[in-house]
Structures are given as C-alpha cells and as structure tokens.
Specification:
Elements lengths: L1 H19 L4 H35 L1
Length: 60
C-alpha cells in the first residue's frame, strides 16, 4: 500500500514537472495557484454533495 502511494506521488510530480519545466518562476506560481483554485472548487462541490446526501439519509 505504501509503495502504491509512493508511485502515485512520483507520477504526480513527474506530470507537474513536464507541465512546468519551461515556465518562468512567476508562471510556475500562477500554474500552482490555478491548480489550487481548481482543487478548492472541486472539494467544495464534493463537500456540498456529501452534505446533501447526509441530509437526505437523516430524513429517512
């Protein structure tokens, strides 16, 4: 299980390297800010979905 996690992290790092290797420092910062905002939106949607499902279950 730990080995699989290390492989996943390595894969993510390799992907980010390929996406950012030709970017300036400022462009890299913007890249990660943009990725961060995308993740925040995704997590907010997931959280809301989970809360909605929990509310539906509690009404039963």
């Amino acid at each position: 299980m730990v080995l699989k996690a290390v492989e996943i992290i390595r894969s993510i790092r390799d992907k980010h390297y390929e996406q950012t290797k030709k970017l300036s420092i400022n462009e890299q910062i913007e890249f990660f800010k943009r990725k961060s905002e995308e993740l925040k939106k995704e997590l907010k949607t997931f959280k809301q979905s989970t809360e909605d499902k929990t509310e539906q279950i509690s009404k039963v």
